[in-house]
Design brief:
Helix content is 16%, strand content 27%. By secondary structure, the chain is α+β, with helices and mostly antiparallel strands. The termini are far apart. Bound molecules: 2-acetamido-2-deoxy-beta-D-glucopyranose (2 copies). Keywords: Signal.
């Protein structure tokens, strides 16, 4: 009987030791988690001296969903979105965004928001371009500055859950315009359906002087889930826009970057998913002569659903 208490206390001593050890481990894990989370949060924007800003979208979700309010995944003053990255996730995720300083003649806001006064919201599940023929005055000469997602991983692939995919389009500052003649598409995958994945490099981005003016998300014919399918890039022009716009006629179809012998050509049922008409003459009002007269930079459009 006498040895029992000491046995118990030995056990208690061991247990408290163990508790101490476990709580230390827990503390370290938690500290690491919190530290990591904080680092991730505050390390979201990496600004380079070259006029480039890379955003990590992880932990940079939410913010007010409004055309004229700041989103967490949004380019800085004078910048436009020029590229997207997914790490190795087949563009089922938006892991990174590349913003570039494009408008040196724009007076800086000195950090005050809004950086661009005329912005509106689109939804890249179904609305692939900033430009909308039916809201011509508002949407002509607009480019992408921000994306939004309600989960911190920025998953885009789940049907239903990821249907809401808002992005923000803004008017070019005075003195700049979008040269619609120059627009082209950059697909997120090669002709064999292999996605342009990379852990340390952007592979889906616009050429020099071009900015993102469209973003398409499609249901993949084989996986039957969403992937970001392409970005549209258009050149930023400076000065007076050309008097006569000749919007490009090219159409983005599967065939435009895969020929008919493409081994995994989608079946008729899915082929339609891969069609997205560019800002071509069909979308422009008849006899449209450029935007310099009608575009007063005053119009605003509230969030478009
Ligand atoms: C289409 O792809 C096949 C197979 O790779 C190739 O032999 C053919 O030349 C291509 N045709 C065109 C028009 O590019
Ligand atoms: C975006 O479009 C999808 C598909 O039409 C829709 O389900 C979703 O509610 C839209 N989200 C927003 C915010 O407009």
């Amino acid at each position: 009987m006498a040895h029992q208490p000491s046995g118990f206390s030995r056990l208690r001593w061991k247990r408290s030791h163990l508790d101490c050890f476990l709580s230390s481990v827990l503390f370290l894990l938690l500290a690491d988690y919190v530290d990591n989370a904080a680092n991730r949060y505050y390390g979201v924007f990496t600004v380079y001296g070259t006029g480039d800003t890379i955003l990590q979208t992880f932990h940079a979700h939410l913010g007010p969903l409004d055309g004229n309010r700041r989103w967490h995944v949004e380019c800085l003053d004078g910048e436009a979105m020029v590229g997207i990255g997914d790490l190795v996730d087949d563009f089922q995720k938006m892991a990174q965004v590349w913003c570039k300083f494009m408008f040196p003649n724009k007076p800086p806001t000195n950090g005050l928001y809004p950086y661009y006064p005329n912005c509106f919201v689109r939804n890249y599940t179904t609305q692939y371009h900033c430009y909308m023929a039916k809201d011509h005055d508002v949407s002509i000469n607009t480019f992408i500055t921000g994306i939004y997602d309600d989960d911190f991983q920025f998953w885009t692939f789940r049907l239903g859950q990821d249907n809401s995919q808002p992005y923000k389009c803004c008017k070019t500052p005075l003195g700049y315009y979008i040269d619609y003649f120059s627009c082209y598409y950059m697909p997120t995958k090669d002709i064999y359906g292999e996605y342009y994945d990379h852990t340390s490099m952007f592979l889906v981005f616009c050429a020099t002087d071009h900015v993102m003016t469209g973003l398409g998300k499609k249901i993949n014919a084989w996986g039957r889930d969403y992937h970001v399918d392409w970005i549209q890039c258009c050149r930023v022009g400076v000065g007076i826009p050309p008097r006569i716009y000749r919007p490009p006629q090219h159409t983005y179809t599967y065939d435009s970057y895969a020929n008919h012998s493409y081994p995994n050509k989608p079946s008729g049922q899915y082929a339609a998913q891969y069609q997205g008409r560019n800002l071509g003459a069909q979308m422009m009002p008849r006899g449209f002569l450029g935007s310099e007269r009608k575009d007063h930079h005053h119009n605003q459009l509230s969030a478009v659903s």
